[in-house]
Amino acid sequence: LQVPCAPSQPAVGSESRRFANKHSKKALKASLTLGILLGMFFVAWLPFFVTNVTQAVCGCVPAGFFDVLTWLGYCNSTMNPIIYPLFMRDFKRAMGKYLPCCRRSGDPRPSAISLSMRNSNSGPRAATSLKNVL
């Protein structure tokens, strides 16, 4: 009685390794960016929420200290537009495309019509009338 062998897996070629390595680098970079964003969020907002609960329980938090912690949380919102372009190339390209201060001199300026068509998830359409809809 002879048992058929399972076909052996093909050897991983250099192109497959390169593909896997590229995706693992992207995953590592995405994890790093997410870790930094979450870390900044916790550093900025955790003291506010702890102080808020403390204030509700004992009422012993000075108003000025509470205001400082509130503004620390607000500063987190100003850090996100700084962190994203530092770590995400696609975000940086998109910002450079639409913000005049970040656009290169040779790049064409997008028109308002192309922006609205791109944001509406539709292409050019024929005019629709009530008769066509009914």
TrEMBL record:
Localization (cell): Cell membrane
Protein name (record): 5HT6R protein
Region (Disordered): 114-134
Membrane disposition: Multi-pass membrane protein
GO cellular component: plasma membrane
Primary gene name: Htr6_0
GO biological process: adenylate cyclase-activating adrenergic receptor signaling pathway; positive regulation of MAPK cascade
Species per Swiss-Prot/TrEMBL record: Bucorvus abyssinicus
Signal peptide: none
Membrane-traversing stretches: 27-48, 68-87
Listed GO MF terms: G protein-coupled receptor activity
SUPFAM superfamilies, per the entry: Family A G protein-coupled receptor-like
Ranges where the G-protein coupled receptors family 1 profile domain occurs: 1-84
UniProt entry keywords in alphabetical sequence: Cell membrane, G-protein coupled receptor, Membrane, Receptor, Transducer, Transmembrane, Transmembrane helix
